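ping. complex inputs:
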Amino acid sequence: MENLGVDYKVFIAQVVNFGILFFVFSRFIAKPFLQAIRDEKAKDIEKDRYLAELEAKHTKMLEEEAAFRKKMKQEQEAILAETKKAADKLRAELMEQAKEDAADLVLRAKKQIDEDRDAFHREVKSHIATMSVFVIEQALQKYLTADVQKKLTEHILTNLRKN
Amino acid sequence: MNDTSQSKLENDVVVLHVPDTATVMSCYKLSEKELSTIKNSYPQLKGVKLQNVLDQNIISGVVIKIGTSLIDLTLNGALHNLRQNLYESN
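pong. complex structure:
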């Protein structure tokens, strides 16, 4: 060894130094450093787990939102269909009511026309009867002589006696 | 109601039902014979004095007015009935 230029004492001192250095390094530097790395790893794992959990929650919420939207859409469609049905029914009822009203109106108008016509006929008939009798009366008063009037009266009284 | 009021009311009723005068309206003055014919034809005119009144609106015939009753035996009445019949006929 000496031939190679290695001094035992220096070598042993160096080995001892290295041992001390190794001890100090492993005890006070490497160990806390490794612990810090392990802690970071654990934190990363926790973060990843938390992230995955959040992702799962997010996905679940998205799914729930989609389901909710789908359900809302279905309900909206159902309400629209129901409303349309009710509107159609109401329209049909209104149409029916309007038809009935119109028919009633026509019937009443017809009845009124008939009544007016009958009243007019009665009035015309009354006028004709009145005028006819008036004309006869006037003619008789104008052209009947006193003698004829007397004879007519006698005739009436004679018939009275017979009755 | 006292006796006096009741008696008066009864008298009034008698006057209303049996008048002592009846009016006979005609277009000329009726003879006694014609008045007698009228009197004999209606029992309600028995014992009732007939008063002849002239009415130029009567064409011929007579109207007898006794109390509230009116007996129309004129041509005017017949024409009135004719007018009614014309009006009431279809």
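Chain A touches chain B at residues 122, 125-126, 128-130, 132-133, 136-137, 140-141, 144, 146, 148-150, 152-154, 156-158, 160-161, 163 (CB under 8 Å).
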